[in-house]
Design a protein that fits this description.
single chain; alpha/beta; Rossmann fold; 4 domains; 7-stranded parallel beta sheet; binds adenosine monophosphate
């Protein structure tokens, strides 16, 4: 289907063509003909980012009578940012329509400016409920000529406590109006508003009810609560191009996580209710223009933020409410782009994941928290890619090339490469070389001291290694598959697994040792030997060579975020805690120096 087939005015078609809209999005295919050709009200279940602004904006603009200077359409939205966004979008769509005025009125800004804008009556008002009530009370806005009323993000308006305001506003609009209600979710209160204030409305759903966007992949990592921050860092480090929001439960947590990220050299900042409106605007703007890579925010503070191309949403904690999860994850995977919603959970929260899966009708994938090597490899090749694609300014560097050539003449290409990589990468390798496995290990029965079924085991383990590692594509699942295949005994109890580039280290119980080693002795291309320096020991997890000594940096990091540690006193941590210098991480992300000087 094309926009032309939707019978929109030529002026509107020209404007949207200029904006690069080629095909209507699914919500638009449904709402535009419905509004133009029928007379009933509409309830649309659609996430932000599905194109719903044009879904209601285009038919409304098409039906407005430019010569009639009355408020013909009222669009209500929960936040000032969304108001501004909608008004901007409509202004763009109306670029070639003569005589249409669109005014946005919202709280948090001097009312005098808005009063002035209303002197010349607009045909379309985009408003937040509270400010509109104020203007109605001042007699500055009249709603008796409203033909089209749009309630955008209606669930959010209710969440924000606008129910009474909404009812007041609705009562001041004529019964003859047509109403369009948009909501990402359909809680009971929305259904009751629709029932009370809308006439034989039609309901359309883009995707499932309560479902997240189709473009969002949902994954989760299981870790101990004290490792949450470290897991966050691994996620960020594994995704050098990340542009996302980290959702926290409280202002305090938001501040702490953001501060730690900043101290650790990440391009992050916090958005929470303790900031003034001006400070919030600044942070949001920096994030919008990608001056910030990570925004750590509470749900309430992030409400006003409308950014379409987030790569990730990170749930630092799972929200209690599935609808909040839907809203959070709906912030990524917008406008036909792919997005990832990541949750860091504790083992006891798996049931919450199941509950969200049921409500969203989506399956979530549990992934292994990447180990240090995986992170390093990703970063290394990210850097190599960047080098491949860097723009070379021949002219500027020409005067130096000869001298540089002379100076480096004695180095082979391989030596040059090694030095180049080390220059940028040593800190990273150092930081991660002894990084701990952060995956939550379900304790085996015997580790819990419950031996009834496994009475044959002594509880002592031996650390073994197999000559297959990361470079052969090894991962824990594959490794366990190999054990099952080769040993042919599913009761073999494997303790902690550590995968390095060349080897996989793992623990087995002493009394199963022979079985495992002899099974592998028949394999020509795999060899299992005792890990160097390994001793049998009692219970607990133990690392092979790879994890013998945890680096100072890493230990520091772990204690920083352990609940028991004195956070303040740990904060002054040395620079060695930064796995990289933030500069150059991504050319798109300008390093924010201001974050260093700002203290809130
Ligand atoms: P919305 O859900 O209204 O916030 O829209 C999400 C994004 O999709 C915005 O950046 C719109 O400009 C864009 N958009 C809306 N409709 C179309 C379309 N038909 N083709 C391409 N982009 C669109």
């Amino acid at each position: 289907m094309t926009f032309k087939e939707l019978n929109l005015k030529a002026e509107i078609l020209s404007a949207i063509e200029e904006l690069g809209y080629v095909q209507p999005m699914p919500v638009q295919e449904k709402t535009i003909p419905f509004m133009l050709e029928q007379s009933a009200d509409l309830v649309a279940l659609a996430q932000t980012g599905t194109g719903k602004t044009a879904g209601f904006g285009l038919p409304v603009l098409n039906m407005i009578e430019p010569e009639r200077k009355q408020v013909q359409s009222l669009i209500l939205s929960p936040t000032r940012e969304l108001c501004i966004q909608i008004a901007n979008d409509l202004t763009n769509y109306a670029k070639y329509l003569k005589g249409i005025r669109i005014v946005a009125v919202y709280g948090g800004e001097d009312i005098r400016k808005q009063l002035k804008q209303l002197d010349n009556t607009p045909q379309i008002i985009v408003a937040t409920p509270g400010r509109l009530i104020d203007l109605l009370e001042r007699g500055k806005v009249k709603l008796e000529a409203v033909d089209y009323l749009v309630l955008d993000e209606a669930d959010e308006m209710l969440n924000m406590g606008f129910k009474d305001d909404l009812e007041t506003i609705l009562s001041k609009t004529p019964d003859t109006r047509r109403t369009m209600l948009f909501s990402a979710t359909m809680p009971r209160e929305i259904a009751s508003i629709a029932k009370k204030y809308m006439k034989d409305y039609q309901e359309i759903t883009i995707g499932h009810r309560n479902s997240g966007s189709e473009n969002v992949e949902h994954i989760y990592y299981v870790a101990q609560a004290k490792h949450r921050y470290l897991v966050l860092k691994r996620i960020v480090d594994l995704n050098p191009d990340i542009y996302g929001i980290v959702f926290c439960r409280t202002r305090q947590e938001t501040k702490e996580v953001a501060e730690h990220l900043m101290q650790d050299g990440y391009n992050a900042d916090a958005l929470h209710g303790d900031l003034s409106q001006a400070q919030r605007d600044t942070v949001m703007q920096k994030f919008r223009i990608r001056n910030l890579q990570l925004l750590v925010a509470t749900d309430v503070a992030a409400r006003g933020l409308d950014v379409s191309d987030l790569t990730h949403v990170i749930n630092y904690n799972l929200p209690d409410d599935v609808e909040i999860y839907t809203h959070r994850s709906g912030r990524t995977g917008r406008a036909n782009k792919k997005g990832v919603s990541v949750s860091i959970i504790h083992s006891k929260e798996k049931h919450k994941i199941r509950e969200i899966e049921r409500m969203l009708r989506k399956s979530f994938e549990q992934q292994q928290i990447p180990n240090g090597l995986e992170v390093c490899k990703k970063q290394l090749f990210y850097m190599i890619d960047k080098m491949q694609n860097v723009e070379v300014n021949e002219e500027q560097i020409a005067p130096y090339v000869e001298q540089i050539n002379k100076q480096l003449d004695y180095l082979t290409k391989e030596e040059l490469l090694k030095r180049f990589v080390s220059l940028e990468f040593n800190r990273f390798l150092e930081y991660y070389q002894d990084a701990e496995d952060l995956n939550y290990q379900e304790k085996s029965r015997s580790e819990r001291g419950d031996r009834e079924e496994r009475g044959s085991k002594s509880g002592r383990k031996v650390r073994l290694k197999i000559n297959l590692g990361e470079r052969e594509g090894m991962n824990p699942k594959r490794f366990l598959g190999i054990i099952n295949d080769v040993v042919g005994d599913k009761s073999i109890n494997i303790g902690s697994i550590e995968i390095t580039n060349k080897f996989t280290f793992f623990d087995v119980f002493e009394d199963q040792l022979d079985k495992v080693v002899s099974a592998f002795s028949n394999e020509s291309d795999m060899s299992v030997t005792e890990a160097k320096g390994s001793k049998s020991y009692d219970g607990g997890s133990r690392r092979g060579d790879y994890g013998k000594k945890r680096s100072e940096d890493y230990r520091k990091d772990e204690s920083r975020f352990s609940k028991k540690s004195g956070r303040q006193s740990d904060r002054g941590g040395s620079n060695s805690e930064k796995p990289w210098r933030n500069r150059d991480r991504n050319d798109n992300f300008k390093n924010s120096n201001s974050r260093k000087s700002r203290r809130r």
